[in-house]
């Protein structure tokens, strides 16, 4: 059986979108970048820890667990989920008028092996004035989302250009995930 180690409704929705059968396994992994850890290594480590934590609580010998992590990166700084409205405003002011990177890594972990893939996207935001930022935060959409925006919602209005993967920015790179699942015979062609 395939499991998704995630509380994220977006990840669930994206996997459902391609008709994959899976169950949810609850995990709670701390997200803290280590000193000197690159953004890519950090995202990959957290995604792997989520998948491993999921596998650890399952007794089924043939279980396969997916874990994913998504972060926004600007100037080597990682923007996770905002703590509050002030933090969200601060992130959006920093992203305004700039191109940032979104790193989305997925790990597939079983008792016989571990495999991963990463999607890198470049996202261009126009200059955002204070009124736009305040109105966007009032939608509550920034909370629980890396970089304080959601490409799949009102946040689409803040994105001028995407060079990469829409599903990857949303939290679960579907092309890469499907390729991993296919390579390990967890889905068909
Ligand atoms: C940039 C961006 C992020 N996000 C979301 C995806 C992720 O859910 C979240 C990044 O936080 P994550 O720590 O990757 O995931 P999570 O805590 O929501 O879920 P879990 O660890 O249980 O799997 O930001 C969007 O929904 N849209 C976007 O455009």
TrEMBL record:
EC code(s) of this entry: 3.6.1.9
Compartments where found: Cytoplasm
Protein name (record): dTTP/UTP pyrophosphatase
Cofactor: a divalent metal cation
UniProt similarity note: Belongs to the Maf family. YhdE subfamily.
Taxonomy, superkingdom: Bacteria
Site (Important for substrate specificity): 10, 70, 152
Principal cellular location given in the protein's record: cytoplasm
Cross-referenced InterPro entries: ITPase-like_fam, Maf-like
Task of the protein: Nucleoside triphosphate pyrophosphatase that hydrolyzes dTTP and UTP. May have a dual role in cell division arrest and in preventing the incorporation of modified nucleotides into cellular nucleic acids.
Catalytic activity: UTP + H2O = UMP + diphosphate + H(+); dTTP + H2O = dTMP + diphosphate + H(+)
Gene3D superfamilies reported in the protein's UniProt record: 3.90.950.10
Species of provenance: Dyella japonica
Keywords: Cytoplasm, Hydrolase, Nucleotide metabolism
Active site annotation, chain numbering: 69 (proton acceptor)
CDD domains: Maf
């Amino acid at each position: 059986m395939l499991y998704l180690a995630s509380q994220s409704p977006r990840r669930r929705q994206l996997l459902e979108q391609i008709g994959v059968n899976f169950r949810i396994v609850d995990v709670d992994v701390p997200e803290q970048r280590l000193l000197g850890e690159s953004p890519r290594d950090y995202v990959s480590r957290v995604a792997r820890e989520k998948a491993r934590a999921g596998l650890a609580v399952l007794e089924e010998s043939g279980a396969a667990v997916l874990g994913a992590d998504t972060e926004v990166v600007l100037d080597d700084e990682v923007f996770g989920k905002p703590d509050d409205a002030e933090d969200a405003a601060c992130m959006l002011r920093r992203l305004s008028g700039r191109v940032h990177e979104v790193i989305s890594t997925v790990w597939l972990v079983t008792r016989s092996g571990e495999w991963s893939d990463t999607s890198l996207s470049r996202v261009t935001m126009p200059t955002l004035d204070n009124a736009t930022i305040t109105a966007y935060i009032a939608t509550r959409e920034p909370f629980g989302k890396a970089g304080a925006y959601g490409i799949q919602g009102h946040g689409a209005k803040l994105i001028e250009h995407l060079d990469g993967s829409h599903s990857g920015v949303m939290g679960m790179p579907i092309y890469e995930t499907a390729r991993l699942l296919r390579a390990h015979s967890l889905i068909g062609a």
